[in-house]
Every structure is written in structure tokens, then in C-alpha cells.
């Protein structure tokens, strides 16, 4: 089977998941064609993987270069030239509408193929809900040959916010446990926490929805009781604010801003606790990756987080903005070695059901069903 994958190539969760999925499929013998404007960050070489770059020619007339048209045209060319069987787009905007456009263009040549849209979160909850985008998002989701969402919560949110006329399949995100596991990096830990301090970690794209200010404030309360260090991984619009806050609270020396990192698994391996106080997470892939490395999670209870973080078992859930509650739970876990070990073990155990080997076959099954249904629909229309 030949599959086209369209995603954002950046450090965001949707791009990471799409890349991991494409790599997993290529290892299983599928031919996978990535169509993006830049090489996805986690994309490794594999003989079954092809990468097609979307280039957007500019012209002085264009204040806004027409990316969606460039993407749709690239999709048309890649599908036709490589005889793809299916297109799988991750993140609705503008990937689903570009896929619809490409499919309709290809119908004229008889080379059209079905497309699946996977909803990831902010495409529905933030961007998608803006009335500006609603007509196009609703239409292109409904025109998809199948729709998937990464959590039950996102499925419900989508039905609440848009007039969706089809079912939405829930296929949760997955983690590659060959890469995300607790490895021995004690020498590295000693460098960052020379006096045996506990290490708390946050990974995100530092957008407002992540509430990075809460990360700093929770850490401030924890370190008053427990000697600890905070590692801030990632970059984005709220980073400067977070750095200034850490300075103004006089804890800057205890906080390391490490920027974007590719070897996140190594950093997670030396971490004792993961903080994710987001306003909303459809899923929280970064928390799942942390748990796979044996790191308990302190998160909010918003969105799909309760579907991956089990309260009192793999970590704790608090209301959005309840810094005191999050700090109380963090201190509870970190203040007792035995308890910390118990949470670490439970975190690893809990990630088992989200392993790549269980989730990727769910996509494979859907691909087969969608291709078969599309073929028989085409035959009826001939
Ligand atoms: O918010 C991000 O970190 C980026 C965003 C994206 O689309 O790239 O992540 C969304 O998709 C991830 C993968 O499915 C989910 O794990 C994140 O929870 C989700 N983010 C939000 O819902 C805010």
C-alpha cells in the first residue's frame, strides 16, 4: 500500500505523531510519501520513505503566499506520479481542505484516492472554532472519507463545535517504547542536579495554552520544600515571559531553559516529575512520552489528559490554574523515595496500552476499510 502523509513538520505533537506513524508504517513495508513544507523533525531515513517538499513561489503581489494552493497542487502531483492509494492528513487546517481540493482535481483524471483526516486538538478547539474558519473546516472534515480524533474528548469537542455528519473514530496517540524508555543517564543527571536534587521537567511549544507561568509557579512552591531543579524544554511565544518570571522570583539559577531538543528521551530519563498544566490538551503526547520513560505526571484535568494520566496512579490531575493543588501533589510524590518509585513504575506500566504495536494496526485496519469502500463507491458510479 502506498500512503501519502501530510502534517506540520515542526516540533508540535501532531507532526511528531504523523512522523512516527509514517516511520512505523514504512518499517512494516508500506511505501510512505511525506508531503510537507520542511523535513519533519523526527523523520529518519528509510528506503520506503519519500519526502516531497511543498514550495510556495512568492510574487510581489502576494502579501499572503497561497500555501493551501501550493499544497493541493503538490498533493495532486505526488498522488498521480506515485500512484498512491490513500492520503492521510494530520491537523484539519488547511490540510483537510487542500486534500479535498486535490481529490476533486484528480477525479477528472480517474486517479482520485480517498483521504483520512486526523484531528489533533487546536485545529478544533482554538483555530477551528474561530468563526472565520468554521465553514471550510466543517466542510472539509465532512468531505473526508474517514475522520479520526486522538481522544474521546476531542471527538466530543468536535461534535459540539461543528456540524459533523459522519462518525469520528478515536485512535489514541502512541509511543515508541524502543525509543522512550528509562535509560541510565546518571552521569548526565549529576551534571544538572549535582546535590541529588529532584528534577522536574516541562516540554512544550510555549504557547499560551500551555500555561508555562503555572509551571514556574508550581516549581517555586515545590523547591521551597524539596531541593529541586526545573528543566524547560522547547521554545515559543511564552518563553521570554517564563524566563523573566523565574528571574523575578529569584529561582532562575534553579531553572534551565534548554530550548528545542531532539533527544528528549534522554532528558526524560533523568526526570522525576513531568509538569503539564495546560489550559487544554486533546491528548498530551508529551506526557505519554514522559510516562514511558518512567516519569509521573502532574497535569490539569482538561481535555483528554484524564484519558492518559490516571489520578493517584501515574500522577495527579488538578483544575486548570490550581497551582497550589499541583504543587501539593508534586510534593507528595517527590517527598518519599518509595512512593516516587511506585509512581514511576505505574507510569511505565500504564503506557503499555498506548504502545506503537497496539495503535498502528488500528490505522492500518482503517486504511484498508476506507480504500475498499472508496473503490466500491467508484465502481457503482461508473
Ligand atoms: O499543542 C501542541 O503541543 C501542538 C499540537 C499540534 O497539533 O501539533 O498538539 C496537539 O496534538 C497533539 C498530538 O495529537 C496532542 O498530544 C496535543 O494534546 C494537542 N494539543 C492541544 O490540544 C493543545
Structural overview:
- With 382 residues, this protein is α/β, with parallel strands linked by helices.
- It folds into two domains: 199 residues, Rossmann fold (3-Layer(aba) Sandwich), CATH 3.40.50; 169 residues, Rossmann fold.
- The strands form two sheets. A seven-stranded parallel β-sheet has the order 3-2-1-4-5-6-7, with helices on both faces.
- Strand 6, helix 6 and strand 7 form a beta-alpha-beta unit.
- Helix 3 packs across helix 5, helix 8 crosses helix 12 and helix 11 crosses helix 13.
- It starts with a strand and ends with a helix.
- The model has no long low-confidence stretch (mean pLDDT 95).
- It binds ligand GMT.
How many helical stretches?
Answer: 14
> How many runs of DSSP E, i.e. beta strands?
13
> What is the CATH topology assignment of the largest domain?
Rossmann fold
SSE succession = EHEEHEHEHHEHEHEHEHEHEHEEHHH
Number of domains: 2
Bound molecules: ligand GMT
**Averaging pLDDT over every residue, what do you get?**
95
- Which spans have pLDDT < 50 for at least 5 consecutive residues? none
Reported CATH architecture of the largest domain: 3-Layer(aba) Sandwich
The CATH superfamily of the largest domain is Glycogen Phosphorylase B
What is the CATH level 1 assignment of the largest domain? Alpha Beta
Report the radius of gyration as a whole number of Å: 22 Å
Question: Mind describing the biggest β-sheet?
Answer: 7 strands, parallel
Strand residue percentage: 15-25%
**Cross-sheet strand order for the largest sheet:** 3-2-1-4-5-6-7
Structural class label = alpha/beta
Give the overall shape: elongated
Distance between the termini: 24 Å
Report helical residue fraction: 40-55%
Amino acid at each position: 500500500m502506498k500512503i501519502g502523509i501530510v502534517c506540520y513538520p515542526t516540533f508540535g505533537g501532531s507532526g511528531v505523531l504523523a512522523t512516527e506513524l509514517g516511520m512505523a508504517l514504512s518499517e512494516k513495508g508500506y511505501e510512505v510519501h511525506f508531503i510537507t513544507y520542511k523535513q519533519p523533525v523526527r523523520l529518519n531515513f528509510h528506503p520506503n520513505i519519500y519526502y516531497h517538499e511543498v514550495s510556495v513561489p512568492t510574487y510581489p503581489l502576494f502579501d499572503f503566499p497561497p500555501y493551501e494552493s501550493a499544497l493541493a497542487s503538490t498533493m495532486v502531483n505526488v498522488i498521480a506520479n506515485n500512484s498512491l492509494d490513500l492520503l492521510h492528513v494530520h491537523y484539519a487546517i488547511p490540510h483537510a481542505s487542500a486534500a479535498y481540493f486535490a481529490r476533486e482535481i484528480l477525479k477528472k483524471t480517474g486517479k482520485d484516492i480517498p483521504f483520512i483526516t486526523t484531528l489533533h486538538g487546536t485545529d478544533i478547539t482554538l483555530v477551528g472554532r474561530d468563526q472565520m474558519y468554521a465553514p471550510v473546516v466543517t466542510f472539509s472534515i465532512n468531505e473526508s472519507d474517514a475522520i479520526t480524533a486522538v481522544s474521546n474528548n476531542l471527538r466530543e469537542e468536535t461534535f459540539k463545535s461543528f456540524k459533523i455528519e459522519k462518525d469520528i473514530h478515536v485512535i489514541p496517540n502512541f509511543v515508541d517504547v524502543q525509543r522512550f524508555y528509562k535509560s541510565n543517564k546518571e552521569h548526565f543527571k549529576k551534571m544538572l542536579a549535582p546535590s541529588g536534587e529532584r528534577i522536574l521537567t516541562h516540554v512544550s511549544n510555549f504557547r499560551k495554552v500551555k500555561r508555562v507561568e503555572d509551571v514556574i509557579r508550581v516549581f517555586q512552591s515545590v523547591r521551597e520544600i524539596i531541593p529541586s531543579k526545573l528543566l524547560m524544554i522547547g521554545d515559543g511565544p511564552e518563553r521570554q515571559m517564563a524566563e523573566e518570571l523565574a528571574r523575578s522570583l529569584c529561582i532562575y539559577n534553579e531553572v534551565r531553559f534548554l530550548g528545542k531538543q531532539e533527544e528528549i528521551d534522554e532528558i526524560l530519563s533523568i526526570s522525576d516529575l513531568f509538569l503539564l498544566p495546560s489550559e487544554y490538551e486533546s491528548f498530551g503526547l508529551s506526557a505519554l512520552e514522559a510516562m514511558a520513560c518512567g516519569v509521573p505526571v502532574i497535569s490539569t484535568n482538561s481535555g483528554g489528559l484524564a484519558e492518559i494520566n490516571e489520578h493517584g496512579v501515574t500522577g495527579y490531575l488538578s483544575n486548570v490554574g490550581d497551582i497550589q493543588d499541583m504543587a501539593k501533589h508534586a510534593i507528595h510524590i517527590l517527598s518519599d523515595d518509595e512512593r516516587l518509585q511506585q509512581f514511576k513504575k505505574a507510569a511505565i506500566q500504564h503506557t503499555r496500552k498506548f504502545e506503537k504495536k497496539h495503535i498502528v494496526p488500528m490505522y492500518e485496519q482503517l486504511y484498508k476499510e476506507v480504500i475498499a469502500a472508496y473503490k466500491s463507491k467508484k465502481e457503482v458510479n461508473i
